[in-house]
């Protein structure tokens, strides 16, 4: 594992749990959430998220959390609803691990417009808490997703 | 497989071959290239690229090719060197399959600046030809990567 990402090691593995989604423009929903974080010896982690509703695959996204310098985190992600996310973040290791990112978003022509995505990953032992706020379709930054996951591998 | 992406089926699978990289600001290089395209019943393909030089993992990236409407292709990708790519494309099925995309690129703060990425995938039976042009670090759109791959699964 690359030294630059060693402090993110508590994120590595596969996490699964329950999430709740909400947004001013949609009906709230519950979902099954899975996050997988992996590394390949380079100064970044790769992540894949997959969700299910009623046993059916629902959402997925992929990306990287980069550690270009000590204390610096950056995120890039691709979302198949037509978003490309690019931002910066912080890491706090004082009590478990908290990774927080704040990103601007590019949108393909046919996509619903997402302007900003703010993510927060909190690892406490084998529990991962995930929160995502989003500014989209004319709404200001608003809580969209909240999930609590357990390490499954 | 979703009807919207059925015409991209010839891309599905894992491809491996040899590539050559060049750019005005770097030494040219040869590499081993692998592309994997998969689908999950939704109107997009997911791709993962992995490269090696001298047996060592070198580059990787992930993304999606979306088909939001007949004849329309869009691309979103995350590149762990700090780029998030978002663009449109075309599909030509008149002679094999040609998928061409042209994207603008967002860059994280610490990343080398990439402004535009133009990709071309040509499938002819079990051969995939890949070309990538890039406008980056002040250079105009210039050929960066060219690879010829064979289907391995």
Give a brief outline of the structure:
The structure is a homodimer of 153-residue chains. With 153 residues, the first copy, chain A, is mainly β.
Describe the 3D structure.
The structure is a homodimer of 153-residue chains. In chain A, strand 8 and strand 9 (127-136) form a beta hairpin. Chain A is mainly beta. The model of chain A has no long low-confidence stretch (mean pLDDT 97). In chain A, 37% of the residues are buried. Chain A contains no helices and ten strands. In chain A, strands 1-2-3-4-5-6-7-8-9-10 form a ten-stranded antiparallel beta barrel. The interface between A and B is medium-sized, with 35 and 35 residues.
Task: Give the SSE layout.
Two copies of one chain form a homodimer.
Chain A: E1 13-23, E2 26-39, E3 44-53, E4 56-69, E5 72-79, E6 83-92, E7 97-107, E8 114-124, E9 127-136, E10 142-151
Antiparallel strand pairs in A: 1-2, 1-10, 2-3, 3-4, 4-5, 5-6, 6-7, 7-8, 8-9, 9-10
Taken in chain order, the helices and strands of chain A follow as: EEEEEEEEEE
Instruction: Name the strands of the widest sheet of chain A in spatial order.
Output: 1-2-3-4-5-6-7-8-9-10
Counted beta strands of chain A: 10
As residue ranges, the low-confidence spans of chain A are none
* Global geometry of chain A: globular
Oligomeric form of this entry?
homodimer
How much helix, percentage-wise, in residues of chain A? under 10%
CA-based gyration radius of chain A: 15 Å
**Terminal Cα separation of chain A, in Å?**
18 Å
Largest interface, C-beta within 8 A: A-B, 35 and 35 residues
* Rounded average pLDDT of chain A: 97
The helix tally of chain A amounts to 0
Major sheet attributes of chain A: 10 strands, antiparallel, barrel
Q: In terms of structural class, how would the helical and strand content of chain A be classed?
A: mainly beta
Strand content of chain A: over 45%
């Amino acid at each position: 594992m690359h030294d630059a990402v060693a402090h993110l090691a508590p994120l590595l593995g596969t996490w699964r749990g329950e999430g709740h989604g909400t947004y001013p423009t949609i009906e709230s929903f519950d979902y099954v959430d899975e996050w997988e974080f992996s590394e390949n010896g380079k100064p970044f982690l790769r992540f894949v998220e997959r969700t299910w509703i009623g046993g059916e695959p629902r959402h997925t996204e992929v990306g990287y959390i980069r550690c270009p310098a000590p204390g610096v985190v950056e995120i890039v992600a691709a979302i198949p609803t037509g978003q490309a996310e690019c931002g910066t973040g912080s890491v706090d290791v004082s009590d478990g691990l908290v990774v927080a990112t704040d990103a601007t978003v590019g949108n393909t022509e046919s996509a619903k417009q997402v302007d900003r995505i703010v993510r927060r990953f909190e690892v406490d032992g084998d529990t991962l808490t995930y929160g995502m706020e989003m500014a989209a379709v004319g709404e200001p930054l608003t809580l969209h997703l909240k999930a609590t996951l357990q390490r499954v591998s």
